[in-house]
Task: inverse folding
């Protein structure tokens, strides 16, 4: 039986790829169509976005947070679109001036957050593949929000390796960037 060969895309081809109404990522040259978000997924992203945006405003930080829409180039033939992404405001302004047609950063964001969609393939992508790509890119902080497992894993980059801490229930989630953010997994579990 003949195997169908999957077309490998260059990063430039990915930038020109017409995804129609789909959200896509580039994984080692392959276009990955991301699953449609569930209502729970969307509610968690909205809640985190609002909470973190308020934190940024209250602390007068020169940061920008984006709920999707920002691509993160993680390799020669890889690009991800995190559920939430935090950049220095200056980095965002430079990107806007440099490339008004494509919002893909090629330098490490300060923090990325992924909300795990149901299914083993999605879990593998968020817990293993993206974690490794984000580590290699040098992203200092990566959160994995897992509604099914009712836990948040915070990965902090130290000496080119992520150290992970899992949070559950009422334990306060500790962030390296958002040092006194008031957040627990229990708050996310209500969605």
Result:
């Amino acid at each position: 039986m003949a195997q169908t060969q999957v077309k490998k895309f260059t990063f430039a081809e990915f930038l020109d790829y017409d995804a129609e109404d789909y959200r896509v990522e580039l994984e080692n040259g392959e276009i990955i169509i991301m699953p449609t978000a569930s209502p729970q997924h969307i509610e968690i992203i909205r809640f985190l976005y609002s909470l973190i945006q308020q934190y940024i405003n209250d602390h007068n930080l020169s940061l920008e947070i984006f709920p999707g829409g920002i691509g993160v180039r993680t390799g020669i033939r890889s690009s991800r679109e995190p559920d939430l992404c935090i950049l220095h405001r200056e980095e965002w302004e430079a990107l806007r001036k440099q490339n008004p047609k494509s919002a893909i950063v090629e330098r490490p964001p300060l923090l990325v957050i992924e909300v795990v969609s149901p299914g083993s393939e999605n879990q593998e992508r968020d817990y293993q593949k993206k974690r490794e790509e984000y580590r290699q890119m040098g992203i200092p902080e990566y959160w994995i929000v897992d509604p099914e497992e009712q836990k948040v894993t915070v990965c902090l980059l130290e000496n080119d390796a992520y150290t992970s801490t899992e949070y559950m229930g009422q334990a306060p989630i500790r962030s390296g960037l958002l040092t006194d953010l008031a957040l627990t997994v229990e708050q996310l579990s209500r969605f």
